[in-house]
Design brief:
The chain has 261 residues and is of the alpha/beta class. It has 8 helices and 7 strands; from the N terminus they run E-H-E-H-E-H-E-H-E-H-E-H-H-H-E. The chain is globular. Bound molecules: 1,4-dihydronicotinamide adenine dinucleotide (NAI). 1,4-dihydronicotinamide adenine dinucleotide binds next to helix 1 and helix 4.
């Protein structure tokens, strides 16, 4: 017996699709048959990704999005829906981090992380969620097949680590935001879940893994290794699948056992 997640006919939007996890999420959703809206600030990179997806037989569309700008969020979502149709799946992935002790954090550092990871993620989900709710209310019985919102949090949102305190705070807020949205929007057939990855090798942290302290950190991980973006493919598929309609408000870790270590 085999099992296939088929997202044909679904429109998915991935924020922060220009690199790392977002890029991989977009390719995986396209492979599963979804039409994928690639949203980020670095549009040239998104165009390269669109070409790659289309060469593999997929369908995608590029939109410029800065999640720290409310007007940009509204414009990007409106543009995406005009071009591709109503968004069925949102992967709320854009994020940033800084590394410093709490006593060194300036108001600018604080706003940089919170404006992107928490406020940005909230208003992207709100804009998409409002439109999903409108579709759910307007749909003839049985015609709205349900929305999926995957908020990319972090194990840092569950377990505090030194030097990334503000980042951990921003992601803890995303975990709670997920539960609040699941509670309010579940009745409209919208499932909101949080994905908490462990340490994955991306542009986000590659500079750190190259340092001596980064190498020491890897040796102290439960299996002494980093993950690769594709290691999250199946858990993403599970959270986006039509068949996962019973999974709502879940906080799913994919961290190689870090949180229990
Ligand atoms: P990355 O740096 O490769 O990707 C982050 C993406 O977010 C980039 O495409 C960037 O352009 C985009 N972005 C940042 N600010 C933005 C803004 N204002 N507007 C629109 N897009 C913006 O990093 P990575 O690792 O792919 O991170 C993706 C998500 O995964 C982030 O939310 C991060 O916190 C989370 N995460 C990453 C982990 C890791 O070990 N790499 C572990 C746990 C969570």
């Amino acid at each position: 017996m085999s099992y296939v997640v088929d997202l044909s006919g679904r429109v998915a939007m991935v924020t922060g699709a220009s690199s790392g996890l977002g890029l991989q999420f977009a390719k995986t959703l396209a492979l599963a048959g979804a039409a994928v809206v690639l949203a980020s600030r670095r549009v040239e990179r998104l165009k390269t990704l669109r070409a790659e997806i289309e060469a593999a037989g997929g369908n995608s569309h590029v939109v410029m999005l800065d999640v720290t700008n409310y007007d940009s969020i509204k414009a990007a979502v409106a543009h995406a829906e005009t071009e591709m149709g109503g968004i069925d799946i949102l992967v709320n992935n854009a994020g940033v981090s800084t590394m410093q002790r709490l006593v060194e954090v300036t108001p600018q550092d604080y706003d940089f992380v919170m404006d992107t990871n928490t406020k940005g993620a909230f208003f992207v989900a709100q804009e998409v969620g409002k439109r999903m709710i409108a579709r759910a209310k307007g749909a003839a019985p049985g015609t709205f097949t349900g929305g999926r919102i995957v908020n990319v949090a972090s194990t840092g949102g569950l377990r505090v680590l030194g030097q990334i305190g503000v980042y951990a705070m921003s992601k803890a807020a995303v975990v709670h935001m997920t539960r609040a949205m699941a509670l309010e929007w579940g009745k409209y057939g919208i499932n909101v879940n949080a994905l908490c990855p462990g340490y994955i090798d991306t542009e986000f942290n590659r500079h750190y893994w190259a340092t001596e302290s980064g190498q020491k950190f890897i040796r102290e991980l439960p299996r002494k290794r980093l993950g690769q973006p594709q290691d999250l493919d199946l858990v993403l598929m599970m959270l986006c699948a039509n068949e996962s309609h019973f999974v709502n408000g879940a906080v799913v870790t994919a961290d190689d056992g870090f949180d229990v270590g």
